[in-house]
Known about the structure:
By secondary structure, the chain is α+β, with helices and mostly antiparallel strands.
Amino acid sequence: xxxVWIIYNCIHCEGTWNYPILSRVHVSKINPNLYQKFMNNHxxxxxxxxxxxxxxxxxCKDVDTNVCYDLRMERxxxxxxxxxxxxxxxxxxxxxxxxxxAEILGVSRSNLKKLEIDGRLKLNPNISMKKRIIxxxxxxxVGKG
Length: 145
């Protein structure tokens, strides 16, 4: 039987807290590839579990979701006046779509809402801008013809 957890350090008291990933699980019940990643303290795997904000909140009410992040942008030439934004986010950073889009486009959230109402802002998949960022989100801003 094994336990897998991530050890968090409290920024206020320097205490530690164990976030259980697996508890009392027989090794044969764990995917061998995942088990090897746990055994090797694989960074990407640890980060994936470390940012399971909704799971963390169930165990600890004081989860600080004010996470620093970088926006990396590449520009591509287009024959059209539309702008397509693809958002890749490997972790659940608990960021609202409208907050990130406002930052990318340099506009207010109310201006984003107006673009959406005017049919000039489209999300794929078709979800509300008030939802949290998901991986592989595509946003199209339709240019004025």
